[in-house]
Design brief:
- This protein is of the alpha/beta class.
- It has two domains: about 15-40 and about 220-395, Hypothetical protein af1432 (Orthogonal Bundle); about 55-195, 3-Layer(aba) Sandwich (Rossmann fold).
- It contains 20 helices and seven strands.
- It has helices at about 15-20, 25-35, 40-50, 55-60, 75-85, 95-105, 120-130, 145-155, 165, 185-215, 225-240, 245-255, 265-270, 275-285, 285-295, 305-310, 330-345, 355-370, 375-385, 390-395, and strands at about 65-70, 90-95, 110-115, 115, 120, 140-145, 175.
- The strands form two sheets. Strands 2-1-3-6-7 form a five-stranded parallel sheet, with helices on both faces.
- Strand 4 and strand 5 (about 120) form a beta hairpin.
- Helix 11 (about 225-240) packs antiparallel against helix 12 (about 245-255), helix 11 (about 225-240) crosses helix 17 (about 330-345) and helix 12 (about 245-255) packs across helix 17.
């Protein structure tokens, strides 16, 4: 039997760790614009694609594959038949080594693991699984003797949180070994439902990210913009002290900030002549369109302000809402600097790509005019740019050669 494929969620961890180690449909579209229904046709079609990824209750309730890791044969011999009677496929392992072997070969819907194993701790096995790319959304239930054992896991005798626990990824739930066996299927089903919802959310976000990357395929000279911006934004956010939640938002925004361009005619995007006022209005609409396209995915709620406001300027001359200074969301301000830098380094129909020195000089002039936050700019120049080309090259997303 082969390992079942799971959607791979884009993760910022590798980028941060590497960084820390170093220290033509014009007429119809214009008609929609006049009615203030910008991109309505493309939006409705794309919205239907997103809705396909909403979880159906039947999908969340179906039986699944369960891994039980416990050396107590009496306990597992009682639990396995109960879960099997509900339609689940149950695999039992006695040791952590056996569990790792099974997890390398197969993907499970739920893992139930004893706290103590003959060759290690269940908490460590849980940490390894939840820290991996494919296992991060797999629900894990840690089997304990009762509330007192949970207190031992979470707290020192003095009441202080144990440092060794802070460093581990915790299980999704603590399950008492002494629960009546007929209650176990309901608890397992709850864990399974959570895992499947998380997987469907990851699938929908992954699909949106792939669509955003597909916009780059309209012109090979734009290839890699999303991934480069994601890497730079996460590194800059880490320098500025963003937490894990904010770094995830920045990483996703790096891919999704321009997704609204999917509804804009390619002839307008790639036009080499000066844009007319109407065409400029169409281009500027991509921020609002992108926000609308991603609004149905609840997990992207923190990303929506970044998508909408990443073209705002501190002096109020940006778009779409002409926000000024601190009215602009901080994460949108962080994304703007590497976004402008990457745009300057890329070919444009009206100019050749700039080198690093030219791009920095132009950005510095714009900071002096009050366009961008000087603190964020200085952090980008001093702590992100050094060695950036080498890091992007190692990720195979260096700017395309013209």
């Amino acid at each position: 039997m082969q390992r079942r494929a799971r959607c791979r969620v884009y993760g910022y961890t590798n980028s941060v760790e590497r960084f820390k180690r170093r220290s033509a449909a014009g007429p119809n579209f214009l008609a929609c614009l006049e009615c203030n229904e910008i991109g309505n046709i493309a939006f409705s079609n794309f919205r239907s694609l997103v809705l396909k990824f909403k979880v159906l209750p039947m999908q969340a309730q179906r039986p699944g594959d369960i891994l039980v890791v416990d050396s107590d044969g009496v306990f597992t011999s009682g639990l396995s038949p109960v879960l099997s009677a509900c339609g689940h496929t149950v695999t039992v392992c006695r040791t952590a080594a056996e569990a790792r072997y099974e997890l390398d070969r197969f993907s499970f819907d739920v893992v139930l693991c004893a706290r103590h194993l003959p060759d290690g701790e269940g908490q460590q096995l849980c940490h390894e699984l939840k820290s991996s790319t494919e296992g991060s959304i797999t629900p894990v239930g840690l089997l304990v003797s009762g509330a007192r054992e949970i207190d031992e896991i979470m707290y020192r005798p003095s009441g202080m949180v144990a440092k060794r626990q802070i460093e581990r990824v915790p299980p999704d739930e603590y399950l008492s070994r002494y629960l009546p066996l007929d209650e176990m299927p309901a608890r397992v089903q709850t864990l399974m439902r959570i895992g499947r919802y998380q997987e469907e959310i990851a699938n929908s976000i992954g699909t949106l990210m792939k669509v955003a990357e597909g916009i780059e395929e309209q012109d090979k000279r734009m290839t890699g913009h999303c991934k480069r911006l994601s890497i730079m934004a996460v590194e800059l956010g880490a320098v500025l002290g963003c937490d894990e939640f904010q770094l995830t938002a920045l990483e996703r925004a790096g891919y999704l900030h321009d997704i609204g361009k999917v509804a804009i005619p390619g002839a307008v995007i790639s036009k080499s002549e000066r844009l007319s006022p109407r065409e400029m209005e169409i281009i500027q609409a991509h921020c609002v369109l992108g926000e609308r396209l991603c609004a149905d995915v609840a997990a992207l709620k923190p990303v929506l302000p970044i998508i909408r406001h990443h073209h705002e300027r501190a002096d109020g001359t940006g778009y779409p809402d002409r926000l000024r200074g601190q009215e602009i969301p901080v994460l949108a301000q962080i994304l703007s600097i590497p976004d402008i830098y990457d745009a300057l380094r890329m070919w444009r129909p009206y100019r050749p790509p700039m080198n690093e020195a030219q791009a920095i000089d132009l950005l510095r002039q714009e900071v002096s005019r009050g366009y961008w936050n000087r603190l964020i700019f200085d952090a980008f120049i001093d702590q992100v740019l050094p060695g950036l080309d080498e890091r992007l090259n190692s990720a195979h997303v260096l700017w395309p050669a013209i």
